[in-house]
Amino acid sequence: MERLKVLKTYKIFIGGKFPRTESGRFYQPLDATKKPLANMCLSSRKDLRNAVVAARGAVEVWSGATAYNRSQILYRLAEMLEGRRSQFEEELIRQGSTKTAAKKEVDTTVDRWVYYAGWCDKYQQLYSSVNPVATSHFNFSILEPTGVVLAVAPEEGSLLGITSLIAPVIASGNACIALASESKPLCAISLAEVIATSDVPGGVINMLTGKYSELEAHFVSHMDVNALWYGGNDKNAPKRIEEGSAANLKRVKTTTPSKDLYAENWQSPYLIKAFTEVKTTWHPIENVGGANASY
Amino acid sequence: MKSNTIGYSSVPISPSVDAVGVDDRIDRIQKRSIKNESKKEGLPLILSMIDLTTLEGQDTELKVKQLCSKAIRLHDAAPELPTVAAVCVYPALVKVAKTALAGTSINVASVATYFPSGQADIKVKLADVKHAVGEGADEIDMVISRGKFHQGEYNYVFDEIAQVKEACGKARLKVILETGEIGNLDAIRKASDIAIYAGADFIKTSTGKIPKAASLPVTCVMLEAIRDYYFKTGIMVGMKPAGGISKSKLALAYLVLVKETLGVNWLTNEWFRFGASSLANDVLMQYMKLKTGYYQSPDYFSID
User: Fold this and answer.
1) Which residues in chain B touch residue A218, judged by CB atoms under 8 angstroms apart?
2) What share of chain B is helix, strand, coil (3-state, %, to 5)?
3) Is B39 in the active site?
4) CB contact under 8 A, A218 and B297
């Protein structure tokens, strides 16, 4: 008798836990031979609501951690990922990658986490400034994380795509809610399993799966989401997102669907800067140029 | 007129409480789905029942003034909303609140009788009450002597409440049982009966100063005490759960419980109150969600 196959149900990731979608709905992405890959949650607006509450609760802890600590945690994540590479390679192959391509994608993903781990305590030096002013003030500008950021992963690159969005967003202390690729969602939830066993505090990274078309209206209108990064394929989406986000002036970033996630511009401190806010402080001092300096 | 001159002997033997039955009933109430139409009615009603409370050692006059302006104008984007029922402060700040709320229908409630412990001589407690009433408090929230209750001195507890009631004059008296310190549901039922027969206008669960604050099962038992008294005498007594109620969903469950235990007559701020500080903003956020269709952010609501 032939054995009945067990098709894995991938649950979503909210606040460090793996709940099923509140809606109870699911979908089955297909492989190249039109066979179902897995059961994935079809997330609803209420899942988004719960994820935002979790992310908001995590912002204080995560942005309050030292940059050095965040750096260590991101590096730890890379280590854990490396340890489970065979699972990711196997999933990528099931989702249509060749063996070589799968290996390359996992290699690059691990390297990308390490890359942003390194930037955690360094981007601030690049973008902060001491400003010359004509009054008795020491005036300086620094970057602070924007807050709760929604990231819509590219359709291509089941693992590297979502990593390329999450890593720069959380490097500065933001909390992130990521929506996985609709057609290739497996690696996102496996990555969540890695995150759950790293030292990332619950709620800093949350993963939803499902249809972007269903969720877009709720993504853009949610008042407690501070920024949205759209990496999907729909050419008309950026305009709709900009319009919908006007109610709370969400920071919006769209990256044209980049087929080439290996391109140099996908790994840059500017992607960290995109989700930060400048804070300028005027600190009173006794006399200008007291130390014979121009600031 | 209540028979509070007779003393503890007038309190009937309290029936024993079926704790499993109470839990089961609360379970079913919390699992029920509440539809948007009902929420639209319920949320403003909750707001109108809130005793906006600040009872901290660090309270300043400005903090109380700020709380009062919040009480008057809950949210500028929704002027159609009612105001809260009362502002609840320490006796020393009653005058500040009274002045800030002048010309509105919002009452000033004051805790008294050596709140929150109640460990003082009756003379001190009565002086505390008279002072608060003299300052202009419309409502007095007293604490019962839990120590005496545990010692079995029910006479003392009863007489104390009766004396405080007398000292209140026209002010309405809420009697805080501090159920977290009273014990099991049977003891809570007994304390409720004592308070009601001694002349309480309201019975209230908690001070909010200990971790074990208001809960639905406790409230259910107290509501049943009120119901039994009403059936016997025809006199209505109010109910005020306080402490730990910070979410709209939970507050709506309380309304369901009140409606199904006491009936619709109690669904007004004359007979039912919430003692809370952070509940108001959550209700406002849920209300605005219904009104606009968008999930809200606390960034757009005033803190106090």
Assistant:
1) 295
2) 50, 10, 35
3) no
4) no
Query: Could you report the per-residue pLDDT of B238-256, keeping only the tens digit for each?
Result: 999 999 899 999 999 999 9
One-letter amino acid of A286: E
Could you give the ipTM of this predicted complex?
A: 0.80
Amino acid at A69: N
Dist. CA B185–CA B204, nearest whole Å: 15
Per-residue pLDDT, averaged over A103-129, amounts to 96
Q: What CATH superfamily is the domain A17-28+37-282?
A: Aldehyde Dehydrogenase; Chain A, domain 1 (3.40.605.10)
- Give long-range contacts, CB 8 A cutoff, 24+ apart: A18-21: A18/A192, A18/A193, A18/A196, A19/A50, A21/A47, A21/A210
Please enumerate in sequence order all residues whose Cβ is within 8 A of that of B258, keeping only pairs 6 or more positions apart, or say none.
B223, B239, B266, B267, B272
Cβ-based neighbour number of residue B254 at 10 Å: 22
Helix (H, G, I), strand (E, B) or coil at B244: coil
Q: Do A224 and B296 touch (CB under 8 A)?
A: yes
Angle (CA) B276-B279-B280 rounded to 5° is 105
Strand partners, B112: B142
Residue in chain B lying closest to A56 (CA): B297
Interface contact flag, A223 B293, Cβ < 8 Å:
no
CB atoms within 10 A of CB B163: 17
Other CB atoms within 10 Å distance of the CB of residue B286: 21
Contact residues on chain B for A220, CB-CB shorter than 8 A = none
Residue A18 C-alpha, separation from nearest chain B C-alpha, in angstroms = 22
In contact, A56 and A175? CB cutoff 8 Å: yes
Digit-coded pLDDT (tens) for B157-179: 999 999 999 999 999 999 999 99
Which residue of B75, B286, B294 to mutate against A (max A Cβ within 10 Å)? B294
Query: Out of B128, B190, B204, B282, which one is annotated catalytic?
Result: B204
Q: What is the pTM of this model?
A: 0.87
Judged by a CB distance cut-off of 8 A, whether residue A248 touches chain B is yes
Instruction: Look at the block and give the residue holding tokens 């208001």.
Output: B214
Q: Which residues pair with B204 in a beta bridge?
A: B176, B240
B240 is catalytic: yes
The interface residues of chain A toward chain B in range 180-239, judged by CB-CB distance below 8 A, are 218, 221-224
Q: Which domains does chain B have, with CATH numbers?
A: 18-300 (3.20.20.70)
CB contact under 8 A, B295 and A224: yes
Residue B141 annotated among the catalytic residues of the structure: yes
